[in-house]
Predict the structure of Glyoxylate reductase.
Amino acid sequence: MNKPKVVLIGALMDPALEKLQNFCSVKQWDEQQSIPQEILMEWVADAEGLIVNNSVTVNEELLQHAPRLKVIAQVSVGYDNVDIEACSKYKIPFGNTPGVLVDATANLAFSLLLCSTRRIHEGWDFIRSNSWALGHRLALGTDIAGKTLGIVGMGQIGAAVAQRANAFGMNVIYYNRNRRQDDEKIGAAYQSFEFLLKESDAIIVLTPLSQETRGLFGPAEFRKMKSTACFINVSRGSVVDTDALVEALQTGEIAYAALDVTDPEPLAQDHPILKLSNILITPHIGSATLETRTAMAQLTVDNILAGLADRPMAACVNASKITEKNEKP
Ligand SMILES: O=CC(=O)O
């Protein structure tokens, strides 16, 4: 029996890759640079499955070029690069990887909070620049117990961050599009966005990127924050107006920022944000642990195999929008 053809963009960890190769004929793009559009279009022309990463834009044009496509999956929880409505229109289920990355991402977010408030990476720079030996003083950090943490975007990862902040004695408030019914269980109180901006000592952003959240943090929002505030983004870079953030850090409107995501990504070496001393940036590594990435790869392959076999997928974003398969418009 012929194996179904699957196009794989990017790397996939073993043993998931091996499993995929056992059941499917896999064509993989694993180069540093993004796949050129003409090659992508050529490859998807006869593909039945497609695994993408966020360097690929999945839109109607791509779907029109892929008449045999039965399923798409991505090794991430965020899918702002994918036009879900178009996938649903073409009756193609799209799978992502929620759940399995919650703890790793919450740990990274909380690490950025601790590193920022205790100025850990500055300490490391201080040592490497020989300042210790020269007797220069290192600036003091701040405590987090008793301080207010504002979480913007209260999904599973937000709840896991709230749990950690509670354990560290923080007062946790959150803002979300919809208020959660289990405020008490997650140990966080719902507040308006305005209140959160004004009252938080630290803000952690975890909201997905959408039309509503693009540029959510701009000049006006930074102006409302405390001058001692620490701003942390672990969602998507475009939720923040980068120029406004640079200015807020330069002028002292806020004290500090830590970002796991940036706009653009990656940052050019001469980007002004890299010249600031009151910022810490990590290269989009929220879910990057061996265990988590292995589980994400496994879930992605399970999603693809289920979609190819017309079985329900473990994590499908548009399951409710797809009724009859393979009836393409
Ligand atoms: O950014 C990472 C993800 O969306 O999983």
